[in-house]
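Database export, one record per block. Field names are fixed; values are copied verbatim from the stored entry.
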Amino acid sequence: MNLLKRAALVALLSVLVVAALPAQQKPAANGATKEVCVTFDDLPLNGPDQGLKRLRAVNEKLIAVIRAHSIPAVGFVNESKLNRTGQAERVAILKLWLDAGLELGNHTYSHLSLHTTPLAAFEEDLVRGETVTRRLMEPRGMKLRYFRHPFLQTGPTMEARAAFEKFLAERGYTVAPVTFDDADYVFNAIYAWARQRNDAALAERTAAAYLEHMRTMFDYFEKLALEVVGSPVRHVLLLHDNELNADHFDGVARVLEQRGYKFVTLQRALEDPAYRLADGYVGPRGLSWLHRWAYGKGMKETMKSEPDPPDFIMKLYNEAMASR
């Protein structure tokens, strides 16, 4: 076989291999590598407090998985969760994230809603929420540069949002948007409840439903990006620092890898021109930036199509919330 024919055969085989891959494993439509930044909210723990020993174990396990997949993750801190019994041990957990080469961001002190909290009070809570984190980062030559809105609520009016964004810029912050949104905190509430009661069957069922939910959400937001932006985007994934992800984030990371994603920094993700699109939404809902960009383009019905967790999870979650 001459070199020309051999080259043609190799090219044909390459095309056939890619075509044979499941849809979720194919590269982006434009042939580029798909990219995603992974972020975790509510450090040092989202969900019910598990005690200091379990708190540290959850974070150690989650960090180990993050490092195993070489993910340059960002963890967003609520410093009110440090000011409890065992404060030094809780602060030490933030050091674990930094020691692992990961970055920390500000998620406010007490996880207030910008939609319902007066702007001055919200800004004060943000400043209060950077005290310990800045002190830990500065000796390492790191700056506290990213802010994540609690509940993804960016303000009740355009004027309030603009005023707050001006405040953020003056303090050196960049907003950390989200494109891959999900309901991991809902699954975690059921998972943690099952673990506390040694209900292994419910914990296993919840974890399996969680991974399927994540596949569903990745499918949904990838398609929405094509509809709203017109091309794939460098996604930002919102997850939470909790027991469920300590045990099962490895599965989520593997799903992303199988879909062809490369893990990138938040700085790299935000270089995508999509993040300069107009955010046309204000109101009480915490929305993916893909929905916000849709609003900016006059596409206001995209939220109606977003998938919900399975019925059995929502039933258990609503029952748990009602019993509080």
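Remark 1: Strands lie at 34-43, 74-77, 103-106, 146-147, 174-175, 235-240, 261-263.
Remark 2: Residues 1-25 have pLDDT under 50 and may be disordered.
End of record.
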